């Protein structure tokens, strides 16, 4: 470990030490709780929102509520809603209704026309998938139509922008928890705070309208502001991470012809009318998603702070230290992975035994992502139906470098892909 501004920062790697940290709920707490006192803008997620709060009785109740709605059996009822949103988004993209798409080169850019377009360009892949992820979260979990996949100014547009903005800005506070933002920079952040108020109002509207999930939170807790924190945590985590994963999966297919051919060989043997029970059992599609998560985990780093002096795998770490765990580096470790930086989904067809914390894109322990089954279902459905309908051609020479200085692994620039209808 090292001393950073009189603050101890320990970087933990290796499956066993990482497992020790992620499963230790008595001696560690989420580092965000310390950060929030310095940057009130992150109140969007909130001190008591599930995404940022520490392990306690209240947190366990919230986790239990989410598990009721996000376990593998419960999410199967959302298949029809997800498919409808995917169809709507691809329809809107095809006809140039969404601002992130343009029509086939040489054709007039007329929005909303009835004719089907055999080819169109997506100029910002992240925006397309943010629209899908927002509407899936809204419809499936909160019974609310945000309208993001059918128009440019859907109700969660502010959330999509805030996900990128906050993920980028807050990273620097994570890197140095003792840091204070200069007054001049805080003034600039007022624009972000205004957008946060809009997002909080969206969450308030969701609670007032009611849904099975929000009603459970209202029954269990009295403070409406804390429930708003929880709703925004769910929206932020579900929308931002899923859209990033879909971006890198789609870009990998477009830029890697051998992977594209390998995956399409399996998809060609399955009917376009296949339901979730069939799609979920496709081994190559499953391996492809796992490899995407290995190379591009949505959350590249996670942090914990120590309540007291703690021994971690033989090292004595003092109280108050920040512990860094990086799924990004752990899942590229050359001692664990053969050709670790190459995109080789075939490896997951052959792998039989793998330590829990050698592969943990959804983290591990009590803070393991509650929505991982929901996210995987959404991603597999999007990829299956998108690839059954379109061929993908990259409009850039390489996948834009990911931006590591962020809570989540955002592309450093727009990912541009041409969609050509499969005859």
Query: Whole-number radius of gyration?
Result: 21 Å
Q: Tell me the fraction of residues in β-strands, as a range.
A: 5-15%
Largest sheet properties: 5 strands, mixed
Helix content: 40-55%
The number of helical segments is: 17
> How many individual β-strands?
13
Overall SS class: alpha+beta
- What coarse outline follows from CA principal-axis ratios? globular
Helix and strand string, N-terminal first? EEHEHHHHEEHHHHHHHHHEEEEHHHEEEE
Mean pLDDT: 81
Tell me what you see in this structure:
- The chain is an alpha+beta fold.
- 48% of the residues lie in helices and 11% in strands.
- The protein has 17 helices and 13 strands.
- It has helices at residues 15-23, 32-35, 57-70, 72-75, 79-94, 125-142, 157-175, 183-188, 190-209, 212-220, 224-255, 257-267, 276-279, 283-295, 327-330, 347-350, 372-389, and strands at residues 2-4, 7-12, 28-30, 101-103, 119-122, 302-306, 310-312, 315-317, 322-325, 390-394, 402-403, 410-411, 417-421.
- A 5-stranded mixed sheet has the order 1-2-9-6-3. Strands 4-5-13-10 form a 4-stranded antiparallel sheet.
- Strand 1 and strand 2 (7-12) form a beta hairpin.
- Helix 3 runs antiparallel to helix 10 (212-220), helix 5 packs antiparallel against helix 6 (125-142) and helix 5 packs across helix 17 (372-389).
- Mean pLDDT is 81; it is low at 1-5, 32-46, 105-113 and 172-188.
